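Q: Hand in one record:
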Amino acid sequence: MRAKFVMSEVGIGLRRNLTMTFAVVITVAISLSLLGVGLLANSQVRVMKDYWYDKIEVSIFLCGSLSEGSSCAKGVITQEQKIGIQRDLQALPVVQEVFYESQSEAFKRFQERFEGSAIAQNVTPDQLPESFRVKLKDPTKFAVIESAFAGRPGVDIVQDQQAILEKFFRLLGVLRNGALAIGAASVLTAALLISNTLRLAAFNRRRETGVMKLVGASSFSIQLPFLLEGVFAALFGWVFSVGVLAGFKAVVDSRVAPLLTFTNYFTWQDVWVASAWLLLTGLVVSSIASVITLRKYLKV
């Protein structure tokens, strides 16, 4: 009977402040959706790091006819120098695998990468250098390769792909942090709106709460319907935000992934984990906002 009474009071409160309740639900939904996008952005950065760091290689470009480095002063690399470099690479304990790429192989890969672009039509095989692509057991050990081969006769450039990726991931990190910051600010806005809505509800029902106090109702019994109003608004907003995240994932899978095939993307499991965090965030924020407001404006 008590539970039925509490739920009826919650229903009455929601109907009396229908416009404000709708505004709270929409605000919570948008806030949680923005925070959820930030969480998925964080998952995407993690997935991309796992994907690309597993493919990181060190490229040792050899002296060709167009090389201008000081180590290429004697011209194109000789076969003896090439054999010596490969042998020394394979002898290093930090090296996992060594791949040799000829000019024709480099040209073929270049054409595949830039297929359909104007630059692909203006490059010939002799303009691309031979190279050794080295996969390290630990991608952070680039300095070992650089110190051993940079400036060596026959070697033009020693390039670490991790340095290139780090700049890219720093940019992604800034975008991710920005999305999380916007989501957090939106959640704070939703908390303030919940607080204002409950304050208005407490003021409109001050006579009822006064009567309940006179008949001996406890503070918790009087405050519980107001608290549940905030929680229900958060739950409705959360349901909407889960739909937004699911739609976002569907768009990524159907539209983005087929076009940008160079990496992996966050999974449905990441969506459900993010949704769980949003539910927890919504309940905690709405509960804290409700308790603080009720203690201040509903003194019984």
Summary: The chain has a mean pLDDT of 80. Residues 161-204 form the longest helix (44 residues).
